[in-house]
Amino acid sequence: MDDTLQRYIVEHTTALDAAQSALVRRTAELGSPSGMQIGAEQAQLLTLLTRLSGARQAVEVGTFTGFSAIAIARGLAPGGKLLCCDVSEEWTAIAREAWDAAGVADRIELRLAPAAETLQALPQQEYIDFAFIDADKESYWTYYSELLPRVRRGGVIAVDNVLWSGRVTEAAPTEASAVALKEFNDRVVRDERVDVVMLPLGDGVSVVYKR
Predict the structure, then answer these.
(1) Rounded CA gap, 50 and 132, in Å?
(2) Residues 139-165: pLDDT tens digits?
(3) Domain of residue 193, CATH code
(4) pLDDT tens-digit profile of 10-37?
(5) Distance CA 115, CA 111 (A)
(6) Number of structural domains, the chain?
(7) What angle do CA 83, 89, 90 make, to 5 degrees?
(8) 44, 65, 129, 141 from 21: Cα distances, Å
(9) CA 152 to chain centre
């Protein structure tokens, strides 16, 4: 997708509010790490998916500076809660301030620990309404495998970076993240427990519906 079409999409998507825009600007000041932040159109997609699923219990794997968490928290049903999994105190310190500014801090719990360990410790029952995966790519299948049994029927998992700048289309990619994502995408589309659609937003977002 070229820059012109990307701008058109953003211009025809509900605009970010002041708190979200401020966080985007602050994250941009970090330099190259800011590339880990999702786009404005992806944030609005997360809010809509959360609302459409009627989510009260949500989980995010990979929080960074908290932009996607704000989007999810904004879409939660009254009384809803979002569990954020991350390992960086540095990045999530920015997130905590942003959540306060956005008025959603009371809906978010942050656990700083390896995400696989956090997910493995969650209740062994189908109670999660919505989940978002956007962390280390080599662990995507691990995160998905821990989340899906805990997602209720009719629940949704959104997964970021599934196109990986198109490198997943290579017959034999050599980059570790591209290899992992290619394998992940192939396994998900064959998973008979779910329906999936891959959207060309940002670096690719898969929306996975549990049957």
Answers:
(1) 10
(2) 999 999 999 999 999 999 999 999 999
(3) 3.40.50.150
(4) 999 999 999 999 999 999 999 999 999 9
(5) 8
(6) 1
(7) 125
(8) 13, 13, 27, 32
(9) 18
